[in-house]
Design brief:
The structure is a single chain. This protein is mainly beta and 79 residues long. Helices cover 0% and strands 54% of the residues. A hairpin with a 6-residue loop joins strand 3 (34-41) and strand 4.
């Protein structure tokens, strides 16, 4: 009898790409079938939600179209 192991991967950034014009592309992996909430911070204390993206295949991309030229830190969560 084979055991089934459910994968419960925490959200993890796997890449970031400067797309120009103040936009950054974020690549993430995590638990399949849930959603990511993406946050940004300029000071590591206060966070602003940038949005939520579905994760049907374990790997997703999110575009931060409001990054401008400010230094930003990114954080992600999954339920």
């Amino acid at each position: 009898m084979a055991d089934t192991l459910e994968t419960n991967l925490p959200p993890q950034f796997t890449g970031i790409t400067n797309l120009g014009s103040g936009q950054f592309g974020l690549s993430l992996t995590g638990k399949t079938g849930t959603s990511f909430t993406i946050y940004a911070s300029t000071n590591l204390v206060d966070r602003t939600s940038l949005g939520t993206v579905s994760n049907p295949t374990e790997a997703v991309q999110f575009i931060d179209s409001a990054a401008a030229n400010a230094q930003r830190y990114y954080y992600s969560s999954q339920p």
